[in-house]
Amino acid sequence: MPNRPLVTVIVPFHNVEHHLPACLDSLAAQSLRDIEVLLIDDASTDGSSAIAKSAADREPTFRYISSPHGGVSVARNLALDMATGKYVGFVDGDDWVSPVMFEHMAAVAEASGADVVVCEALRHYQDRDLITPIDFLGRPCVFGASVAEEPEILRAGHPYVWNKLFRRDLIESAGARFPEARIYEDSIFVYLLLGHARRIEACHETHYHYRFRRNGSLTSRFRPETFQALTAARDIHAAYAEAARKAPRLARVVETINYALLIDNKFDMAFANADRLEAVRYVVQAHRTMAELFPGWQQRHRVAGSLDWRHQARTDLVLALVHMLIPTRLRSALARLIGRRSGRGAAQSAGAAAVAALASALAPRGRVFVADFTTLASFLHSGAPLSATAPLEFTVIAGQAEDDEALLIRDLPAAGFALDRVWRFAGRPREAMLAWSHAGTTAQVILRWAEPAGEDGLDLTLFHVDPDKPCGPRERWVTTLRVAAVGEVCTLEWQGVAVPLPANGPAALAERFGPDQKGRTYWRSPAATRLDATAVWQESSCDAEMPVCH
């Protein structure tokens, strides 16, 4: 092995004898041979030590190191002091990787000069038969820049250490080490380095396999250590505080990261905790921390008009405490009352403002857009949305691919939209989920691109599950729906805003949903054609969130 290998892979482990062989086999099979693998035994008491020693005897690139039991951070920091590679990667002892992971990621780093390279991963649930993607959240185009240039990298790259390859010089110059005797160590380490990196690139391949919700995982159960999220949030905020004061987009992304860390990702965990008083104490402190670091955060994350207490309780501390401490029957009654008081009018006002903002973003590019699907039906039948909480759905006529990307990544955020998720197919954006905040409420907007198809038609690319299969494992499909082209555009005034509708709206609805328009199932429309070989995801429940599709 050369004196300075190209890549050092750090593998901390403690009592994972059932999974460690698969991990080490995947590292022994790496196509990159200019590599060193440091196996850090965190004082295992099962058969893990023997497995690692045997692997180190067989594999010339492996090195076994015994460490007193101090936790994963101590083990990783010990290995960082020993690492000699130009780049450093991390693999947990109970996970595994693809055989080309480090060859491909190092190639991206060498070709681009990036300080950090990020790949996609798969999450393998251990308590059920389910695999979900850890992808770039519909933001693959944000890479190839620094966080200062493109803050969305912080979200698209995720806070995990194991789906990244770091230039070792970056780690040393930033003085980065994992905080010891704490959980959320990945988040602090990763966000510090992403902030210091001059360039962060993406390897658009799935290489890492993460075992999720296994017994003993500190981050998947509510326990006293969960309070360490409060300290982690402060550390992340401090790392970006100075830069965020001068960059509103960066400030918004840092706030969103901490909201997910403190509130969104802990909500169900806290409510399921048997020690309700301990959970209440966490929720109160989390709200106080968010208020201190990000004043006004509740308004920016509130789901306007929602009657679902799970949405409202995330940003309403009183409602959260009510639901945690009051019996179920009384809780349901209070939730309905508070939901009604949230107000349909405010939600509709936000929706109208979103339509106006969408028009202002599309106008400079000369784009035609019209209300479509449920929104079109609502306006044709009642002159307004039938639901204050349903997303507003619009179709925009697609242009050049570069133009569509610029609209999505630059123009819409500049008009005030927060980009939530993007569905891509054949290398182009086909559908985007956006949020527009107005006067303390938020409207959701779904934007779909329609491709001109000859003189008379448009092709819409739609993502859905196979409706003919029952609940259980189901395939996600993408379908091209050939519809009549939008002829003239008429407008309908709503809340003082002109909403564009296709003049052939009734015919368009009949074409999409059938003559009676009762089912509104576009995949059963006579105009729908399922594409071949387009299963893009699998799920095990009917109500799982649709993932990003590439």
What does it look like?
This protein is an alpha+beta fold. It has three domains: 7-218, Spore Coat Polysaccharide Biosynthesis Protein SpsA, Chain A (Alpha-Beta Complex), CATH 3.90.550.10; 224-343, no CATH class; 345-539, Beta Polymerase, domain 2, CATH 3.30.460. It is built from 19 helices and 20 strands. Strands 1, 2, 3, 4, 5, 6, 7, 8 and 9 form a nine-stranded mixed β-sheet that branches. Strands 10, 11, 12, 13, 14, 15, 16, 19 and 20 form a nine-stranded mixed β-sheet that branches. It has a two-stranded antiparallel sheet with strand order 17-18.
Which range best describes the helical content: under 10%, 10-25%, 25-40%, 40-55%, 55-70% or over 70%? 25-40%
- Sheet having the most strands: 9 strands, mixed
Distance between the termini: 38 Å
| β-sheet strand percentage | 15-25%
Indicate the topology:
Layout: E1 7-13, H1 20-28, E2 35-42, H2 48-58, E3 62-67, H3 72-82, E4 87-90, E5 96-97, H4 101-112, E6 116-125, E7 131-134, H5 153-156, E8 164-167, H6 168-174, H7 185-196, E9 200-212, H8 228-246, H9 248-262, H10 267-271, H11 276-293, H12 297-301, H13 309-312, H14 317-325, H15 328-341, H16 344-362, E10 369-371, H17 373-382, E11 392-397, H18 401-414, E12 417-425, E13 428-438, E14 441-453, E15 457-465, E16 474-484, E17 489-494, E18 497-502, H19 505-513, E19 528-530, E20 538-539
Parallel strand pairs: 1-2, 1-4, 2-3, 6-9, 11-14
Antiparallel strand pairs: 4-8, 5-9, 6-7, 6-8, 10-11, 12-13, 13-14, 14-15, 15-16, 16-19, 16-20, 17-18
Helix pairs in contact: 7-8, 8-9, 8-11, 9-11, 11-14, 16-18, 17-19
